[in-house]
Amino acid sequence: MILVWLFSILAIGGAGLFGWRQLDHQADRSEMDRLMATQPAEPPLFSAEMVSELPEPARRFFAFAIAEGTPLLTVTRLEMQGQFGMGDRAAPNYMSMRATQVLAAPHGFVWKMSAGRGLMRMAGSDSGSWTRFWLWGLAPVARFGGTSDHTRAAFGRYVAEALFWSPASMLPGTNVTWEAVSENVARMTMHHDGLDQSVDLTVAEDGQPLHVSFLRWSDANPDKLHKLQPFGGYLSEFVDFNGFRLPTHVEAGNHFGTEDYFPFFVVNVTDITFPRRQ
């Protein structure tokens, strides 16, 4: 009888965890659908005149990143693979990783990944509203979100990524401003829903982005306290996608530009598409 009860409890617990995991999958799909629905139905076509009043390094960037006459689609879907570091600079503890991401600045993002090494296998997702990861798809090991700290940190991430993976969303307008920092550095600031995030973009002579850097709201520090601290990454291996010239290799991490810099996010993008509204 004890064994029957034990088996019943385990079965009920397993079914509950399975159902919980399916709810997470459903939430990922729903949020991706919501973001993809923000894609412009009839986007305008890019013209150099749109950026003629921007600082010179910003004009060079857009001339490099968007071909004349390209439909300005602002929602991007990416497939990527690479390494995700679970440790620190001294002991990176990299795991192989694959992920799908929908990026729709300023509205949000979803990054759905799976990673593993040896017996360690984990999967889950990040978004502007949550961070949820599971061990072997059976046990929840990280669940965050629903706080102003999480929202602010997530906003910094997806604004910076949109700058180099979704340049159409970075054209000047009511929620995006640009200013010059130096001959080869321009600062973009995005404003949305009470949040502001500035990102410095360093470009080469031909306008190719070299790296991005910004102060991100983060608790990735020994004290585990949220504060502004350097974040950034290097961009390379540019490829043309439907009129957009985008980096397919990115190395990014905390404390960018300092001796504590740790590139925990090292990825190669295998595909980029611009989903159309249904």
Assess the beta-strand content as a share of residues.
Answer: 35-45%
Intertermini distance: 55 Å
Q: What is the β-strand count?
A: 13
Secondary structure class reads: alpha+beta
General shape = globular
H-E string: HHEEEEEEHEEEEEEE
Number of domains: 1
Brief summary of the model shown:
The chain has about 280 residues and is of the alpha+beta class. The protein is about 25% helix and about 45% strand. It has a 13-stranded antiparallel sheet with strand order 6-5-4-3-2-1-13-12-11-10-9-8-7, sandwiched between helices.
Question: Would you give an account of this structure?
Answer:
There is one protein chain. A hairpin with a 2-residue loop joins strand 11 (227-241) and strand 12. By secondary structure, the chain is of the alpha+beta class. Helix content is 23%, strand content 45%. The model has no long low-confidence stretch (mean pLDDT 91). It is globular, with a radius of gyration of 20 Å. The protein has a 13-stranded antiparallel β-sheet, with helices on both faces. The protein contains three helices and 13 strands. It has one domain.
Topology:
Elements: H1 2-36, H2 56-65, E1 76-85, E2 94-104, E3 108-117, E4 120-127, E5 130-135, E6 139-145, H3 148-165, E7 176-182, E8 185-192, E9 195-203, E10 209-218, E11 227-241, E12 244-254, E13 262-273
Antiparallel strand pairs: 1-2, 1-13, 2-3, 3-4, 4-5, 5-6, 7-8, 8-9, 9-10, 10-11, 11-12, 12-13
